Amino acid sequence: MASSLLGRLKAIEVDRDLLVFKILYTFVAATFASLGPFLSVIFAGRGLTPSEIGIILCARPFVFFAGAPLFSIIADRARRTRWLLLTVFVLSAVIRTLIAFIPAERFALLAFVVLTCEFFGSPVYFLIDTVVLKVLGKNSDRYGQQRLFGSIGWGLASPLVGFVVEVSDSENWYYYFQTIFLVFTVLTITFGKWPKEGADAANPNADAEAAEAPLGDAAPDREAPDASSFLDLVRLLKNPMTLMFFVSAFNNGLLMSLVSVYLFVFLRSLNGTPTLMGLTLTFTCIAEVPLFFFADRFLRRFGPGWLIVSGYVSFALRFTYYALLGNPWAVLPAELLHGVTYGIDWAAKTEYVRRISPLSRLATVQGILGAIYWGIGQGCGVLLWGFIYDALGPRKLFVIGISSVPTPGEPLAPGMGRNRVWLIGRRAGVHPPRIAPAVMSGLTALTDFCDQHLDLLAQEQEEAAAATSEAMATLSKRELILSGLIFAGLEMASSRIGLNGRFFLTFEPPRNGLFTSQSHFRPGDLVHISPDTADAETKVPAVVISLDAKSLVVSTESDLPLEIVDATFLRVSYVANSVPYQRMKGALERLKTRGINAPFAQVVFDDQTPRFFALNEQVDMLNPKLDASQQAAVRHALAAESVALIHGPPGTGKTTVVVEIIRQLVLRGERERQNNPHARPFRVLVCGPSNISVDNIAERLLPCPEVRMVRIGHSSRVMPKVQQVTLETMLYESDQGEVLRDLRREIQTNVLSLTGSKSTYGHRARAYAELRVLRRDLARREAKLLDHTLLQVPNVVLSTLSGADSRHVRSFGGPRDAASSPGGPPFDYVIIDEVSQSMEAECWLAALRGRRLILCGDPHQLPPTVTLSNPRGNAILSHTLFERLARRWSTSFVPSSPPAGVPVPGPHPDARPANDPVTMLTVQYRMNRHIAEWSNRRLYQGRIESAPAVAGHLLADVVPEPAGGGGGGGKSTQSGPLQPLLAHPLVFIDTVGCAGFEEVNPSAGAAGGPATGPPGAKRLLRQVLASESKSNPNEARLAVLLAHMLLAAGLSPDALAIISPYAQQVRQITAGLAHVQATSPPVPASHASSSPGAGQRAGRKGAGSAGRRPAKAAAAAAKKPGPGALPGPDMTRIEVGTVDGMQGREKEVIILSMVRSNDDGEVGFLADVRRLNVAITRARRLLVVIGCSATLDRDPDLATFVDHLTAHADLQTADFYPLDSLPDLPDPDALGDGN
């Protein structure tokens, strides 16, 4: 226990962010303690009568009741808490000093001064509490460890002041001490480190925010009070549970006034001395300190509810003890209970206020709590107990107090405690109505979810930033290039002007090299542009727009310094981008502050079942080609009252269904507007995790006349076919767009003059200055015109999930909607496609903006990418909103097995088939039935049918077999080199027993990584180059050979993709394709009728682990052909990527390199059945699997896949292919000269 206490003390000591508040609590309490407790003594010494003293003391709490919430509201609206606190505190102390100069004869003036002082001093503690709670955030249970310093300050100052006054016999010392502590308090407020707020809250990612947004869009102010937060506050205060909480606070104030005012009166009647009364105050402060200190543990263990119950129990014990008291000195042990009746109780109430309050109204609710507790509660108590004291005497007063303590009974405001237990105010036989426990249990689940995800997101952000910073500081330039953190030696190929006067810069790799696809750079990432020199200090922030093998495009709002313009070579460096994290955190904070009243929160976290109403209108499908399951999904979405989930397995036409739903919703909105012309505009927000997912829907909507859509986002990231509906295009093709086009041309002319080789320095400096003016003018004109353009009110808005937090999406909830729906969600429907690839926090960015929610995705494919090092936290963040709802409410959904040790919610007892939110598409239109069959049986319970048009299609239908290989048109029965690939949808090339097909696990040193150094830097380097990725060079060579054969036979490079689960293997294959393209190696043109036929299958039974299918392998090896030559096709157009990168894509042919081949049977993350599902369902006509059956058989799921291949694939051995006809593939890390 001692060591634990020392550890906690040490933790507090080093917490510099909170140190200022500890000091502030101490000096504020000391300032108040210097005079406040002694006012009655001072007044009595001045000659005031008891009735006059009583009038002042009784009026103080009611003035407090008026002042505390008033100043708290001002703090929330002005968001200048620091300076408001300084103002009211100084005014309170200065006015209190005036008491020394007012004689007793001027009672009215004296009372006015005292009450004015009370008015300005009333909000002081609550303003500090508000800032502390915001700083603590999710760690708000540590509030008591800060607040205890107020008890220390009070406990030290009050006896010290009393002793000095008694010794000196001078009243002036009250004011001297107050002035001393006041000075220290003012210095602490003025010069201490405070969190920034309001206009002072500089955004450290302002460059990234501005560059990522379509038009100078800044991140929303998370604390800005608006109409919605005010309405949230009104709803909160009208909530019966909140009202009962404030009734409890009033009751606590009532009971506390009995102790604070009448205990000393009672002790005086027992002949208690002033020394005893001073010791009583000291004991109460001593009791508060440890309980404030350990309040966080009690809150985590029991929850606020039980702690407030314990406060009532302590009041009852305390009053019982007082009623039996005979010796006044015996009162001291009872004062130790003050730590529970006030310390623990106040910490619990503060924590509960933090949980239920909108962040932008936290000070207001905190002020209301204080006003009720210390104001009206104490004021009414002073009057009430005074009448009882006069009538019955002091001892019976405490007996009455015992009967006034509420007794714990049925739950009131359930869910505040750990087990949804609160208390009931059962007084005088009045029983408040019971409130359903489920309501607050939902709030608790929501709060716990938000706190957990906020914590994990913060961890992931910190890890990413720390690892990147360490790598940049410790790795060499080559190591940084190899780890994908920088591109060096770049040349600026072109520049143009985009929206908001942004520069769009295109870079080319050096010496005709290629950009590696395995860098850390992704569209939307923050980067720095700098001269490629060792001592370069100039850095321009930018955002990645696009990256392919031959170009890198970035965008920046910053001016381009001449150092960048004049540089021969440039460097682009990766920067850890916190913008996505900040946006997700903002969404979670908004969800948390809105609580259970947030859109869809009651379905997701509470007991409100998803409901579906009977459609009144006949739904005539606009797309007549929809199958029965697709039509059912459309009707299911249209009938949803709150939430609908569409489960779309691979190839089932999910995007087609989404398009039909959008069109049907738009027509429904038009019918509603015809019936009610004054109704609010009907709008649909369509989002996805990536630009491609959104653009696929937008492209399908282009021919639909009823849809008026706008695509929010960077035009450079949008597909060319969708450019016409982007904001930029709408802006520049409007009636006033000509002025903007002229400005752009002028800016472009200035850019060219800057880069002109013959320009003088003075001319370029003038052009540079003029350029800045023109860009600002362009941005101003665009913003003004764009707001006018948005007033046309499209009925469909499309954006990425991150873009749902942009200013333009938020503007749809602005003033134009205020008359029709103040504070309500601006969109009638929110549709999120590919939701299973989206983190849940991302989904809430869009979901909170709608009235109904439609989720579309497939939880049996890969989850969102999370980089958290903690496996359990990684799994929690990967759990999607689709899966949460499906597990909770669906009776038909069969989830994948959750990761070990990760809690997932089970089915709700009220889940019924009639309220099942999930509908599944059951006809797939992509794959040959043999390619689809394994996934169908393993993950979709055999419910997927293959459409007749694709069930039997083969590569031979589109690629004729070359002459000499058995005939043309793919119909020949003769053997040939391509016959197995043309005639079978599945080909399994087994590498078991084949020499040289072992996996390679490169070391960091071999890859150029540091042997020593910070662990974060080493881990970041290994993620791309070393032990955390694997390769199999001969599998890579075989994949390249197969690709070359298929392209030589006439297959388009765009119809083929090579994928692998491992990034290092992707690098190996990419390097091999580039090398083959450059060297045009010989490729086998004839196998002398040696290709395995469809009927020549190797038997699995009886094969040993070292050599499966021995007869087949031996026959193939004996018939190995001699080399020939085929013309070299364009190999660089072949798409190569990881399984994760290919999700959502499809190709006619997929070559899948499994990589793993080892004696231990280790398969790593190949064991994730979702990854395997994605890998094999990308192929339409042909799937070629290259792998070691002996290794794959060690995993149960992979073993069933090998069984499926054995039953349905053409089986081959890797020895059959003449890899010696290919040159050795180069080191992938040498690709593109390091880039």
TrEMBL record:
Q: Which reaction does it catalyse?
A: ATP + H2O = ADP + phosphate + H(+)
**Which stretches are transmembrane?**
20-41, 53-71, 83-102, 108-128, 148-167, 173-191, 243-264, 276-294, 306-324, 330-348, 368-388
Q: Return the EC number.
A: 3.6.4.12
Q: Domain AAA+ ATPase: where? A: 640-895
**Membrane-topology descriptor:** Multi-pass membrane protein
Q: Which residues form a coiled coil?
A: 450-478
Keywords, A to Z? ATP-binding, Coiled coil, Cytoplasm, Helicase, Hydrolase, Membrane, Nucleotide-binding, Nucleus, Transmembrane, Transmembrane helix
Taxonomy, superkingdom: Eukaryota
Q: Where in the cell is it found?
A: Cytoplasm; Membrane; Nucleus
Q: Which GO terms describe its cellular component?
A: cytoplasm; membrane; nucleus
Q: Where is this region: Disordered?
A: 1077-1134
Name one molecular function that GO assigns to this entry.
5'-3' DNA helicase activity
Q: Which residues form the Helicase ATP-binding domain?
A: 622-905
Q: What is its main location?
A: cytoplasm
CDD domains, sorted: MFS_MFSD6, SF1_C_Upf1
Q: Report biased composition (Low complexity) as residue ranges.
A: 1085-1097, 1106-1129
SUPFAM superfamilies assigned: MFS general substrate transporter, P-loop containing nucleoside triphosphate hydrolases
What protein family is recorded?
Belongs to the DNA2/NAM7 helicase family.
Q: Spell out the protein name for this chain.
A: DNA helicase
- Species assigned in the record: Fonticula alba
